[in-house]
Amino acid sequence: MIVETLTSPVILFFVLGIFAALIKSDLAIPEAFAKAMSIYLMAAIGLKGGIEVSASGFTPDLATAALAGLALSFLLPFFAFALLTRFGGLGQIDAGAVAAHYGSVSVVTFVTAKEILTGQGLSPAGYMVAVLALMETPAIISGLLLARRGQLNSNTESSGNGLLHEVFANGSVVLLVGSFVIGLIAGKDGFEPVKPLFETGFRGVLCLFLLDMGLVAARRLTQSKKLNARLVALALIIPVTNGALGVTIGTLIGLDVASAAALGILAASASYIAVPAAMRMALPEADPGIYLSMSLGITFPFNIIIGITLFSQLASMIG
Amino acid sequence: MIVETLTSPVILFFVLGIFAALIKSDLAIPEAFAKAMSIYLMAAIGLKGGIEVSASGFTPDLATAALAGLALSFLLPFFAFALLTRFGGLGQIDAGAVAAHYGSVSVVTFVTAKEILTGQGLSPAGYMVAVLALMETPAIISGLLLARRGQLNSNTESSGNGLLHEVFANGSVVLLVGSFVIGLIAGKDGFEPVKPLFETGFRGVLCLFLLDMGLVAARRLTQSKKLNARLVALALIIPVTNGALGVTIGTLIGLDVASAAALGILAASASYIAVPAAMRMALPEADPGIYLSMSLGITFPFNIIIGITLFSQLASMIG
Amino acid sequence: MIVETLTSPVILFFVLGIFAALIKSDLAIPEAFAKAMSIYLMAAIGLKGGIEVSASGFTPDLATAALAGLALSFLLPFFAFALLTRFGGLGQIDAGAVAAHYGSVSVVTFVTAKEILTGQGLSPAGYMVAVLALMETPAIISGLLLARRGQLNSNTESSGNGLLHEVFANGSVVLLVGSFVIGLIAGKDGFEPVKPLFETGFRGVLCLFLLDMGLVAARRLTQSKKLNARLVALALIIPVTNGALGVTIGTLIGLDVASAAALGILAASASYIAVPAAMRMALPEADPGIYLSMSLGITFPFNIIIGITLFSQLASMIG
Amino acid sequence: MVETVTRKRIEILVDTPLVPRLIKHAREVDISGWSLIHVDAGGGHDGAWQHDDVTEAAAKTIILIIASEAKAAALVDALAPLLDSYGLLLTVGDIQVVRGDRF
Amino acid sequence: MVETVTRKRIEILVDTPLVPRLIKHAREVDISGWSLIHVDAGGGHDGAWQHDDVTEAAAKTIILIIASEAKAAALVDALAPLLDSYGLLLTVGDIQVVRGDRF
Amino acid sequence: MVETVTRKRIEILVDTPLVPRLIKHAREVDISGWSLIHVDAGGGHDGAWQHDDVTEAAAKTIILIIASEAKAAALVDALAPLLDSYGLLLTVGDIQVVRGDRF
Ligand SMILES: Nc1ncnc2c1ncn2[C@@H]1O[C@H](COP(=O)(O)O)[C@@H](O)[C@H]1O
Ligand SMILES: Nc1ncnc2c1ncn2[C@@H]1O[C@H](COP(=O)(O)O)[C@@H](O)[C@H]1O
Ligand SMILES: Nc1ncnc2c1ncn2[C@@H]1O[C@H](COP(=O)(O)O)[C@@H](O)[C@H]1O
Ligand code: NA
Ligand code: NA
Ligand code: NA
């Protein structure tokens, strides 16, 4: 199964990106194009999720999965924080910032997982997109609580409304939720005319986007000066533990195998868009070199190449 | 009918863009991607128009519609100018600049209208693309005549050749006309191999482009410091009157209902690409804050959300 | 046949770009979009080549064509160098730099040729993509040998490893070879899910890319101050001779007509991505105004509009 | 020749997500305008970065501000406590401007 | 150390569509070259703007020109009548250049 | 007011493919950081260019470096032999920086 995954063009392009960065090739995907692809992928995944939910209706499963996702996103940072301060040797602020990333999710990891799972006949439920959207932000609140614990009166500039706004008005959250709602409203018939772009081109765009992600992840790793062996280890241990927890909870609350695997992958994945931006604003003292190198440089490639297969097999075993 | 329009994904993405800008989300479509989409849309609409005309041939209808379009573009600014100076309180130069925008046309308004009309079984004739191209520039001349009236000897730098060149060599005019001609030459058979890109992806791209337009239009409105209640009112009154006039003339000269509606929408729409660029060069003293806020911030969203439906219903009624 | 070529939308968009640049239109394709399209085209052509070879296997034909390509790329610069120094009046360094461009190849010329040939029922073998990749770099070495002849001990900064790395880690080489290998691994079945993007959209993207290439080529020509009549003549003579040689050798080694034509077009084409970047680094004293104006401003349009047809007819005649 | 006056040219290199916050500080010391210059890449003590990162948290921007000496000093004072935590690179130079009353 | 001479560094922030016109003025006072710096966004008395506007009429660019004092003065004089109607932001500073005879 | 020190602001306009090589020179004279400013277009003795060229060999970039006077002089000396063959435009100005010990 890992061989199957590793010979899919989507993953091979990711590996090509890593390879190009490692041999210090000057291959580069223009920033605007990468951003355009990420907008396209989010709009497409949101739309498809909304359409599937508009077909299936709001089921109890959806509610349970949503609650589980919210709880995971809110609670996982506490566990990560403990590891990061004790084993990783990070200070309170850096640990809080990193923890927030691991509670939140990576849209591209989810999208890639959905493609690979679907290719294996394991299609996660449409509402998992809603779960994805719900899991983006609670972790930010936990991370801040952890980072600022015992300093409630600190008159930081970002306390209060400013940050809440930053979190919920974050571009990727708005686009994902907005497209989901558009999918809900438009339904299968309304989607028909725009389907060619959003469905037909999807996997090809994912290939090119992962090519860029491979470049970016590997460059971040090689250019970073902030990682040590313990942090590298944690960037592998945390996703594995989070992912296993996610799969288990998904199975316990009665999700089908594919959706439980997806919940595990969401739990295992670490944000590299919404959370870094929020942390840079809310915790400017935290070192972005640490959280970006861990989430983007190590956890992201680990999940794409190994994690997805790992958690889907775990889900099949215990499901 | 307005409900149908408002639940089409194309319009919903536009509304999402407006919403994101109003809640001050940091959602942003990279400039290069937006420009790429507008190039794609113009090439596609030009090609399709050319191919339809290559099939139908140059008919008398085409000639009548072209003449009507030219006349409208040239004359509408005089009417708008009167309103802008008397009711709107603008000076001669600003009024001339704004008037030019309302005589000219918005390609995206036309494209969206074509999609929505076609979705309702009301397909405008292929030659309306030629009319669109013809209507882009005459208004610029009227606007300048109005702005410079009584100052014929003013030795502005832009008088004469420079401006004519700017108008006819304007990127969007060249691309639209060029693609139309390519469509004419290539015909239906020549188009076949490139059809997948230009036809299949069209509506999806339009969704993403209108998402950006929603963001841009709403941001312009909220960031503008140049609008007052009277100018806002005129940015609604002028398109309604122009549109009604366009539909009526279209019907009188014997166009089918869909094409008459399209002529109305062209008359109602205001330029936000070719004309602003020309005005910035030809009338640097005119305040871009006024003409861009009116055409892009008010008239454009009004036409997309309400105008298209309005004029197509008017055309059905009187047609 | 040249008429057929000249009425294909792909070529017509190229002509439109040239036209727009000549009338000094402000039409411009955003840089990021142009680069995105070139990445897309290289990934697509690489993938397709790899898949075809994965189906046909490594045949003796492939090996012969590869050897011929390598030899041509390595040897053609010597011939060009002689013409450039004697007839063109260039100094040793400039002549060496220009010669390297003519030994190497232009991916877009090849892609356009493949489309046009395929449209005429003359489909070059899949392995020609591998030949294309192989021909990119040997010419760089010959060009440097020629430029530095008699100065072996010159302690230029770029001697040795730095340059070798620059040549083989060049973005376009990595992407082309990488996609080819991905195509080989994924095979026809693995390609299926990503096919819609890479196959369906291909010719449409090529249209828009050639529109940009037309603009860029014509602007380079009109803005250049480095060309004289002799250099212009050489920018036509060298591709014709190289192309004729390529077709002849292709036919002699037993390639089918289409592949022999493709080999001719590769020989005739001049690099404008990999080689200029390498030359700017390895021979900073060489004037980029000369080599870019010749390869991009003259040879590229000549090959697109005339060369492709010329060499395919030659191949048909002697094949 | 047209009359010119001396003003300060302030450049602040800062992580893009923090730009709105610095603009707020500039507004508070009554600075009338600013422009953002696009930075493609860079390197320093903390390693190198490129703008082509997918996460915008890593991109940097230069805020260019023309202001009177007094306002420039007020801005520098207001930003002083943030210099380290925000990792700002702040430079101030002298330039001549026409229509100096606008700044 | 290499010999350097003092020259003027001129920055002109201007609406992108007007750039060719200003370049023409620069050429007329015999200025030898210019470079355009990409500006992403800005704000001033007239509100804020972003480069990501669909209409290019709203984008702005910085024209960077290195010139001798005499040519710089000639350029400022030539642009003086346009400062208001074009909404130019024009600054002039001192810098040292190598190979100063080129400017 | 916060304490500032005088440093040099160096701008080097160079063909984009040559940037890594110049950065290497900067590192060799112990310069601590640099930033790359995006240049869209330009013109000079050799004609005009735009960044939207398909071939990157034609694009140019500005390398911005803040450094002490000594390091700036060392850099200028190191680059002197390359000025002509690389076609560099190199300017050096004075600016004030806060936390000047970093440069
Ligand atoms: N003090 C300033 N410093 C830097 N840029 C400015 C300044 N004032 C204005 N600008 C720029 O000039 C544009 C127009 O300014 P204004 O005419 O004041 O609206 C603004 O949007 C900014 O991009
Ligand atoms: N005086 C100048 N001021 C600003 N940029 C310049 C100047 N001269 C040349 N440049 C830039 O340097 C490039 C090469 O100049 P040149 O070698 O004169 O063709 C030009 O295309 C401009 O981008
Ligand atoms: N001396 C310098 N000159 C110009 N830019 C610098 C300099 N030092 C640092 N930078 C910029 O500031 C960023 C952060 O610097 P640092 O905190 O030293 O890693 C770098 O990535 C560069 O973009
Ligand atoms: Na997670
Ligand atoms: Na109109
Ligand atoms: Na060749």
List keywords for this structure.
heterohexamer; A: mainly alpha; 78% helix; D: alpha+beta; Alpha-Beta Plaits; 5 strands; binds adenosine monophosphate; binds sodium ion; enzyme regulator activity (chains D, E, F)
Summarize the structure.
Chains A, B, C: It comes from Sphingobium fluviale. The complex is a heterohexamer, with 3 copies of chain A (319 residues) and 3 copies of chain D (103 residues). Chain A is mainly alpha-helical.
Provide a descriptive summary of the structure in words.
The complex is a heterohexamer, with three copies of chain A (319 residues) and three copies of chain D (103 residues). With 319 residues, chain A is mainly alpha-helical. Chain A has one domain (2-23, 31-318): Na+/H+ antiporter like fold. Helices cover 78% and strands 0% of the residues of chain A. Chain A has helices at residues 2-6, 9-22, 31-56, 60-86, 92-103, 107-119, 128-135, 138-148, 161-168, 171-191, 195-200, 202-223, 229-252, 257-268, 274-282, 288-318. In chain A, α3 packs across α10 (171-191), α4 runs parallel beside α8 (138-148) and α6 (107-119) runs antiparallel to α14. Chain A is globular. The mean pLDDT of chain A is 91. Chain D contains three helices and five strands; from the N terminus they run βαβββααβ. The longest helix of chain D is centred in the C-terminal third of the chain and has 11 residues, at 69-79. The two termini of chain D are 21 Å apart. Chain D has a single domain, classed as Alpha-Beta Plaits (2-Layer Sandwich). Chain D is of the alpha+beta class. Chain D is elongated, with a radius of gyration of 15 Å. Chain B binds chain C through residues 30-33, 35-36, 39-40, 43, 47, 165, 169-172, 174-175, 178-179, 182, 185-186, 190-191, 193-198, 200-201, 277, and chain C through 7-10, 12-13, 16, 19-20, 23-33, 36, 115, 119, 200-201, 203-205, 207-208, 211. β2 of chain D pairs antiparallel with β2 (34-44) of chain F. One sodium ion is lined by residues 76, 102-105, 242, 267, 269-270 of chain A. One sodium ion (NA) binds at residues 76, 102-105, 242, 267, 269-270 of chain C. Chains A, B, C: Keywords: Membrane, Transmembrane, Transmembrane helix. Chains A, B, C: InterPro entries: Sbt_1. Chains A, B, C: Pfam families: Sbt_1. Chains A, B, C: This is Sodium-dependent bicarbonate transport family permease. Chains A, B, C: The chain crosses the membrane at residues 6-23, 32-51, 63-84, 96-113, 125-147, 167-186, 201-219, 231-253, 259-278, 290-311. Chains D, E, F: Pfam families: P-II.
